[in-house]
C-alpha cells in the first residue's frame, strides 16, 4: 500500500503581523504610552534637578511628608502613596491587558504566545542571574536586589522610540508591548512572593470579601463606578494591611474583569476590560506613573565624584550589567533558541538585527525597577540611592545602543511603512492586511 506523502510541518511565524482590528487597538495603546513616556521623562528630570539643587531639602521633605490614618495602616509618606497606591492603577491596567491578550488577542493562540512569553521569562531570568553573579560574596542586603533589573518599562521604551523617530514595524512594537506586559506580571509575582513581609492572614482573608463582591458585580457587567470603586479601594487597603504589596490588589482586580461582551445581557461593542482600559490608561500614563517617577527618581548624586562612587557599588554594577547585557541576552537568546528548536521561524521581511534592537530596548527599565529597589533596600538608603543611579544609567545606555541599532534600519522601516499604508481599493483597510486574509 502506497504511503501518503507527509504534510509539511506548520511553521508559526515569530513577530508576524496581527489582524487589522488588533493593529488599531495596539496602535492606540502605544500612542497613549508614548505620550505618557514623555511625561515620565519630564517628571524624572524634574526630580533629579530638584534633588540636586540648593533647595533639595524641600524635595525630600515633600517626598517624606506623611498623611493618612494609622489605625488602618494607611499613614504613609507621599512617596509611599505613589508607589503603593498610584502604581496599583498601573498594575491594574497591566493585568487587564494581559488577560485581554490571552482571551481575545493574538496571544490566545499558543503558537503566537509561546515566543513573547518565553522571551519575557528569559529577559527576567538572565538579568537576575547576572546581577547575582556580580554581587556574589557581598553582604546579604546586596543580594536582595536581584529582581531590580528584570522589568521593561514600556512607556520609557516607547518614549525613546518617539525621540529617535524610528519607523519600527508594528509587529515589533506589538511584541515589545506584550513582552513588557508579561514582564510586569512576572514582576508582580516576584514582589508578592519575595518582597512581602509580616504577613497578616486575617487581613488577607478579609480582602477576599470586597474582591469577591467586585468579581460578582463585574461578571454581571455592572459598570457603576460608585459600586466598583469602593470595593476596589477596600480590596487595596486590606491587601496593603496584610503585608503583601498593595499593587498585587491591582492585578487581582483586573483578573476579575470579563474581557468579552455578554450578548446574553444585551451588551454591544467593547467588553468591560477594554472599556476600563480606555478610561484608566490616560490616568495611569498621564498622572499615576509620572507622579511615582517624580517621587522615586529623585536622588542626590553629589556631582561627578558622587556618580563615580555610586557606580562603584557592586549593586549598581550588577544593575547596569543586567539591564544592558542581561536583557539583551535573555530576550534575543530565548527568541533565537525557540526558532531553532521548534517550528517557529522569524516572519518574512524581518531580520535578526531587528530583534537585537528590540532586545536592547527591553533593557530600558524604570518604573518597576525603582519600586523593587525601594522594596529591596529601603527608601533613602545608600544601596537604594546607588540602585536609582544605576537604573537611570543602565536604561540610558540600553536606550542609546538600541537607538544606534534601530537607526541603521530606519530607511528600510520607512520604505516598508509606506508600502503598508497603500490602500488600492479605498476601503479604509491597508491592502497588506487584506492580502493576508
Automatic annotation (TrEMBL):
GO terms for cellular component: plasma membrane. It catalyses: Na(+)(in) + 2 H(+)(out) = Na(+)(out) + 2 H(+)(in). It is found in: Cell inner membrane; Cell membrane. Keywords: Antiport, Cell membrane, Ion transport, Membrane, Sodium, Sodium transport, Transmembrane, Transmembrane helix, Transport. InterPro entries: Na/H_antiporter_dom_sf (IPR023171), NhaA (IPR004670). The chain crosses the membrane at residues 34-52, 72-93, 113-134, 146-164, 176-195, 201-217, 224-239, 245-262, 283-304, 316-338, 350-377, 389-408. Coiled coil: none annotated. GO terms for biological process: regulation of pH. One of its GO terms (molecular function) is sodium:proton antiporter activity. It is a multi-pass membrane protein. Pfam families: Na_H_antiport_1. Its main location: membrane. Na(+)/H(+) antiporter that extrudes sodium in exchange for external protons. HAMAP family: NhaA (MF_01844). NCBIfam families: NhaA. Belongs to the NhaA Na(+)/H(+) (TC 2.A.33) antiporter family. This is Na(+)/H(+) antiporter NhaA. It comes from Pseudarthrobacter sulfonivorans.
Amino acid at each position: 500500500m502506497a504511503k501518503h506523502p507527509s504534510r509539511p510541518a506548520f511553521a508559526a511565524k515569530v513577530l508576524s503581523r496581527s489582524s487589522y482590528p488588533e493593529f488599531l487597538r495596539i496602535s492606540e495603546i502605544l500612542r497613549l504610552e508614548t505620550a505618557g513616556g514623555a511625561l515620565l521623562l519630564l517628571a524624572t528630570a524634574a526630580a533629579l534637578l530638584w534633588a540636586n539643587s540648593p533647595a533639595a531639602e524641600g524635595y525630600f521633605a515633600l517626598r517624606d511628608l506623611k498623611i493618612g490614618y494609622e489605625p488602618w495602616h494607611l499613614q504613609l509618606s507621599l512617596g509611599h502613596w505613589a508607589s503603593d497606591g498610584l502604581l496599583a492603577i498601573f498594575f491594574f491596567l497591566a493585568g487587564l491587558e494581559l488577560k485581554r491578550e490571552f482571551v481575545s488577542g493574538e496571544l490566545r493562540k499558543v503558537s503566537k504566545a509561546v515566543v513573547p512569553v518565553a522571551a519575557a521569562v528569559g529577559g527576567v531570568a538572565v538579568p537576575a542571574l547576572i546581577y547575582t553573579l556580580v554581587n556574589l560574596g557581598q553582604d546579604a542586603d546586596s543580594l536582595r536586589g536581584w529582581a531590580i533589573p528584570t522589568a521593561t518599562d514600556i512607556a520609557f521604551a516607547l518614549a525613546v522610540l518617539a525621540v529617535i523617530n524610528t519607523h519600527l514595524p508594528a509587529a515589533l512594537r506589538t511584541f515589545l508591548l506584550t513582552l513588557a506586559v508579561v514582564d510586569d506580571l512576572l514582576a508582580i509575582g516576584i514582589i508578592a512572593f519575595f518582597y512581602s513581609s509580616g504577613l497578616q492572614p486575617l487581613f488577607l482573608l478579609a480582602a477576599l470579601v470586597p474582591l469577591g463582591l467586585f468579581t460578582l458585580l463585574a461578571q454581571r457587567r455592572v459598570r457603576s463606578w460608585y459600586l466598583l470603586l469602593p470595593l476596589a479601594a477596600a480590596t487595596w487597603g486590606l491587601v496593603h494591611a496584610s503585608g503583601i504589596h498593595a499593587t498585587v490588589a491591582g492585578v487581582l482586580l483586573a483578573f476579575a474583569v470579563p474581557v468579552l461582551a455578554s450578548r446574553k445581557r444585551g451588551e454591544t461593542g467593547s467588553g468591560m476590560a477594554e472599556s476600563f482600559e480606555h478610561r484608566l490608561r490616560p490616568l495611569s500614563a498621564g498622572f499615576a506613573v509620572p507622579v511615582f517617577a517624580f517621587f522615586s527618581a529623585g536622588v542626590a548624586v553629589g556631582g561627578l565624584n558622587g556618580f563615580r562612587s555610586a557606580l562603584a557599588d557592586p549593586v549598581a554594577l550588577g544593575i547596569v550589567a543586567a539591564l544592558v547585557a542581561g536583557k539583551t541576552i535573555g530576550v534575543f537568546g530565548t527568541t533565537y533558541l525557540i526558532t531553532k528548536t521548534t517550528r517557529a521561524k522569524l516572519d518574512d521581511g524581518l531580520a535578526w538585527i531587528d530583534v537585537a534592537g528590540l532586545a536592547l530596548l527591553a533593557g530600558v527599565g524604570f518604573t518597576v525597577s525603582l519600586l523593587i529597589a525601594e522594596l529591596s533596600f529601603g527608601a533613602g538608603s545608600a544601596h537604594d540611592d546607588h540602585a536609582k543611579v544605576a537604573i537611570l544609567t543602565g536604561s540610558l545606555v540600553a536606550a542609546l545602543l538600541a537607538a544606534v541599532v534601530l537607526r541603521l534600519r530606519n530607511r528600510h522601516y520607512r520604505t516598508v511603512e509606506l508600502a503598508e499604508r497603500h490602500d488600492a481599493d479605498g476601503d479604509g483597510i491597508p491592502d497588506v492586511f487584506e492580502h493576508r486574509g
